[in-house]
Amino acid sequence: MSTRTKVLFGGALAAAIAAAALFFAGVHSYREDRQESVSVGEKVGAVTPASGGIFTVTHRNAKGEILSVVTGHNALTNEGANDVWATYLAASGRSAGNTWYVGLVSATPSATSTLSNITEISGNGYARQAITWDFGTSRHAKTGNVVFTATAAWASGATYLFITNASSGTSGKMLNYLALSATRQPAANGDTITVSWDGTL
Question: Is the pTM of this model over 0.90?
Answer without folding.
Answer: no
